[in-house]
Amino acid sequence: MTGVDHSGWADYLLGAVDDRREVAAIAAQIDGGLSIEDGYAIQAALLEKHLARGDGVAGAKLGLTSAAKQKQMGVSEPCYGWVLESSVARASGGAAVDVAVGELIHPRAEPELIFVLGEDLAGPGVTASDVLDATAAVVGGIELIDSRYEAFSFTLADVIADNTSAARMVVGADGIGPRDADLTTLGCLFEVDGQITGTATGAALLGDPAACVAMLANHLGREGQALREGWIIPAGAPCDAQRLAAGGRASARYSHLGAVAVRGV
Ligand code: 0L1
Ligand code: MG
User: Fold this and answer.
1) Would 167 be classed as within a structural domain?
2) Measured between alpha carbons, how far is 73 from 209 in angstroms, rounded to an integer?
3) What's the pLDDT tens digit per position in 148-162?
4) For residue 68, what pLDDT band results from cuts at 50, 70 and 90?
5) Which protein residues touch ligand 1 with a CB less than 6 Å away?
6) Taking Cα atoms as reference points, which of 42, 33, 14 lies closest to residue 160?
7) pLDDT for the residue 1
């Protein structure tokens, strides 16, 4: 690793969250750019700062696991981040969950397939089948991402440092057992402000959503960390993300999992 000030850049990103303002991407401000390794080190420092403020970890997430998202953001690899307890809202029944978009910088909504773990999962060597064995339920959700960077523009290392743009995670009420349906053919229809903006199946997530979660478990295993029982694990968005404004509404309708909706307030 280089002499990058991980704690200082984490403060830079936390300041952007606190002040609800976009900031210049980090890589462009460092001679030689920002490595993926330094991106994860900044992300780890940022997580420590959130925990020091009294927040907790509700799960871990994957980002950029679909071709739709990789194309939208101009990158070719997935990334991993943390889901903070303060970011999670649980849907009840079919009612739309209100999200205070004014607390965010330039939020975008995207559908998510979410695994709820029934037991710990520690890499290396975790397979998609191991993920299904360790999963208590699969639910639908909607993530509100909010890059702290100007114009949602960044390198892969930048977005990793920024905890993969994580901002809010709305978790659907209706789950199924991990083997109750074929997750690769499970369908998702995403609608924003009355317009269908994307349709996809679970296979859009690198061929198999459970394999994505295995990648995350193996990534954390390399750092001596594990996914924990009770955590939620969003496997990524099968469709691209859409701007959500105050008064706007996004809904994700899943086969087998029901619908999840959010309203910008
Ligand atoms: O959850 C995600 O897929 C976000 C990954 C980061 C890139 C973005 O901000 O879209
Ligand atoms: Mg996401």
Assistant:
1) yes
2) 20
3) 999 999 999 999 999
4) confident
5) 63-64, 69, 73, 79, 143, 145, 147, 159, 164-165, 236-237, 241
6) 42
7) 55
Give me the sheet containing 187-192, strands edge to edge.
97-99, 258-264, 249-254, 187-192, 195-201
Domain ranges, residue 142: 56-264
Would you say residue 78 lies in a domain? yes
Q: Enumerate residues 6+ apart whose C-beta is below 8 A from 235.
A: 62, 65, 112, 113, 114, 115, 205, 209, 210, 212, 213
Residue 28 lies in a domain: no
Alpha-carbon span 219 to 100, nearest angstrom:
33
31-64 per-position pLDDT tens digit:
999 999 999 999 999 999 999 999 999 999 999 9
**Which residue is closest in CA terms to ligand 1's atom 4?**
63
Domain count, the chain: 1
List the residue whose alpha carbon is closest to atom 2 of ligand 1: 63
Residue with tokens 């404004």: 245
* Nearest residue by C-alpha to atom 8 in ligand 1: 165
Residues, the chain, total? Answer: 265
Its pTM stands at: 0.96
CATH number, domain containing residue 249: 3.90.850.10
